[in-house]
Amino acid sequence: MSGDARRERAAHIRELLRTEGDNVSENVGTFNEGRYRRYAEMDDVDELRAEARAIKEDAIERLPDLIEQLRETVEGNGGTVYLADDAADANEYVQSVATDIDAGTAVKSKSMTSEEIEVNDALAEVGVDTYETDLAEFVLQLDDEEPSHIVAPAVHRSREDIAELFERRFDLDEPLETAEELTTFASDYLEERVAEADIGMTGANFVTADTGTLALVTNEGNARKCAVAPETHVAVAGVEKILPSLADLPPFLELIGPAGAGQDVTAYLSLLTPPVDTPAIDFDAPDTPGFGDPDERDFHLVLIDNGRMEMRADDDLRETLYCVRCGACANSCANFQQVGGHAFGGETYSGGIATGWEAGVHGEESAAEFNDLCTGCSRCVDACPVNIDIPWINTVVRDRLNRNDDPDAFDHLVEGLTPDAEPGGMDLGKRLFGNFETLAAVGSMTAPLSNAVGDSRPVRAALERVVGVDRRRDLPRFRRETFRDWFEARDADGPDDPARSVALYPDVYTNYVRPERGKAAVRLLEALGVDVVVPDAGGSGRAPLSQGMIATARDRAEAVRDVLTPDIAAGRDVVAVEPSDLAMFRGEYERLLPESDAERLADNSYEVLEYAYGLLENDADAAALAGPEAAETPRAAAEHGVAYHSHCQQRTLGLEAHTVAVLEAAGYDVVTSDVECCGMAGSFGYKTEYYDLSEAVGDELREQFTDADAADRLLLASGTSCLDQMDSLFERRGYHPVRLLDPAGDPGSGA
Ligand code: SF4
Predict the structure, then answer these.
(1) Residue in 541, 562, 739, 717 with CA at minimum distance from that of residue 637
(2) Residue 741 in contact with residue 735, Cβ under 8 Å?
(3) Residue 703 pLDDT class (50, 70, 90 cuts)
(4) Please, what's the b/e burial string for 656-675 (b: 16 or more CB within 10 A of its CB; e: otherwise)?
(5) pLDDT (0 to 100) of residue 60
(6) Going by CA atoms, what residue is nearest to atom 6 of ligand 1?
(7) What is the pLDDT of residue 405?
(8) CA-to-CA distance for 582 and 598, rounded, in angstroms?
(9) What is the model's pLDDT at position 31?
(10) Could you give the C-alpha distances from 530 to 494, 504, 606, 722, in angstroms and in order?
(11) d(Cα 505, Cα 577) in Å, to the nearest integer?
(12) d(CA 329, ligand 1 centre) in Å
């Protein structure tokens, strides 16, 4: 990305933060609270999610057969099925239906698939005026605006600006103010459009192959009006919406309301098996309403491929087709919460899974603009009702985009300096962040000179201009003595009769930037009766993976496996200090290594305080841990208790509670943040185009830890990027929790 493009992007994001950020935050915040509550209340939520995923996996596997079965069923019911190759093909078919009946108007219930093919424009070409009947879609149509959310398209708008829009667009006797007044006005207006429409268009949340039933899940009931009021009903649905049978619906219907908008259930569930046999009402005779001929009812199901069958054949994009379009991934995304879908916007889809959809239906280029907004924090995976690995899809698309860059571009010098497996022409900034390990090794070898050079204004200016590292962000301070150097030179024996033996993984930050936390981890584990070795392992591949450099990440993963496998074979557990590296071992390695290697590492790896928790549960003595009575810095600063922010990947792994439990066992009074993301998310917050967004995400953490209950507490975080962000957000510095528990009481010369 050029400097100009970065500045432009940064300005666009600042503008969205200013104009839409508050509305988006408030609205998706409500959805999220509801989802948390409902997921917690549902005893069987994990079983339902697994069941839903299994049904989708099976349906996509058998898709060609299900399409044929559905065709036979719908035609047997008296309807028509048209399988459209792409948007143009689908639109031509819908146009032909409209011209056949000489249609003048159509009413439409919200459907992202019809947005995807832009059917309104196609109908306008043949003289049909189309009215959106979903209130939010109606608002956007009035203002000629794009949706900013899959299920809540007007999530970025407030009641006040909708009132102002109605005032501008309609000849109102008096201004509309309350939500009720606005809704009543819109529904009266739209009811007239429904009554006069020649065609009703809907999407379909699900279509069942055995009965030809459309399941429509809505909150306004307008879908059923569109489906049954006009004589002609056209439903458009992506082929992935097909489920084998009506009996497959229950898990989806139970999950979609809680996942999407945090509702107990959605207000309307319509199961229609068209063409329905009730006669259409004759609205032309309002005083003596008559009924049309039921035989005149006409139903067309337009099944849309538009890239989906290619996605099905693509091992990495196939999961996208399991998506039920609930929007939970967007709601759970910290960046989306600040700027909404217009920052993410591809041609149709926005937020979370949108990269997969855009890459599949519109091509990878259309996903390029917003793909970088995924920080890989993995919170969306927890939110998704069908357990889709959304960050992986984003990573794969990022990798493909990298490879589409100009391979002949002149960067041989960079290629020579960067020991990665990537092609020429890649964005220099990504390449720099992806090769952070090399930079850290050189920085450590030449410290403190490297730190002084890194601080100089001309170097900061050049870094910002050439590779987009924002000059407002403090750079990591490299340490001359690495963690491994310290361990090897150390003159100390471990416990006499160790209960366990571990290989403490020296991640790049612990080794070159924050060795104190590694030292503290060694002493803590030894105090709990564990023998510790520190293997000569390099980076886990997290840095290149976050830049979409999958081949390089795979190289790193293989190297780590080669080093750690003998330790595991010798009976040692692997302990990681950095949660994002543990998340690699337990998650992404299954994509990068042979299954048995990945499983071995995943099964034998632990986060350091998860491991300490396990030891305490198995009779290790908590008195060995340092508590708040200790006088040394930083523990002395904990006299008012500690405020702990858990790392996002650590939360996805379910490990926050372990750290809190160990801190409490040592006697600390702990409060925790419920902010899902600090905003830094690895290299993301260093990038000049995203610096303001990173700070905006961090604001919530700043507020929480400066309020009365937390203002005097010592700040703690487990993730490196969280600690970096805390240094930027607070005047107080933050520490890794192992520093407080370190029985040797290292006097705190680093975080
Ligand atoms: S990926 Fe999952 S969370 Fe996101 S919209 Fe699809 S189903 Fe919902």
Answers:
(1) 739
(2) no
(3) very high
(4) bebbbbbbebbebebebbeb
(5) 98
(6) 323
(7) 60
(8) 12
(9) 94
(10) 7, 11, 14, 28
(11) 7
(12) 5
Question: Atom 4 of ligand 1 has which residue's CA nearest to it?
Answer: 329
- pLDDT tens-digit map of 417-435: 566 777 766 778 888 888 8
pTM of this prediction?
0.92
Q: DSSP secondary-structure letter at 584? A: I
Q: pLDDT by residue (tens digit) across 498-543?
A: 989 999 999 999 999 999 999 999 999 999 999 999 999 999 999 9
Residue 40: HSE in the Cβ half-sphere, 13 Å Cα cutoff: 6
Q: Which of 205, 255, 326, 389 has the most ligand 1 atoms within 8 A of CB, as the residue to mutate? A: 326
Q: Is the pLDDT of residue 746 over 60?
A: no
How many angstroms is it from 385 CA to the middle of ligand 1?
A: 7
Ligand 1 contact, 384 CB (< 6 A): yes
Q: Which two tokens stand for residue 485?
A: 């150097």
Closest atom of ligand 1 to 320 CA is 1
Token pair of 667 as six digits: 């006697």
**Helix axis angle, 135-142 relative to 159-169, nearest 10°?**
50
Cβ of 152 less than 6 Å from ligand 1: no
Q: Which two tokens stand for residue 165?
A: 């829009």
As a whole number, the mean pLDDT across the chain is 91
Does residue 324 line the site of ligand 1, with CB under 6 A?
Answer: yes
**Pocket mutation for ligand 1, best pick of 390, 392, 397, 652 (most atoms within 8 Å of C-beta):** 390
Tokens linked to 40: 């917690």
Q: Which two tokens stand for residue 729?
A: 């957000």
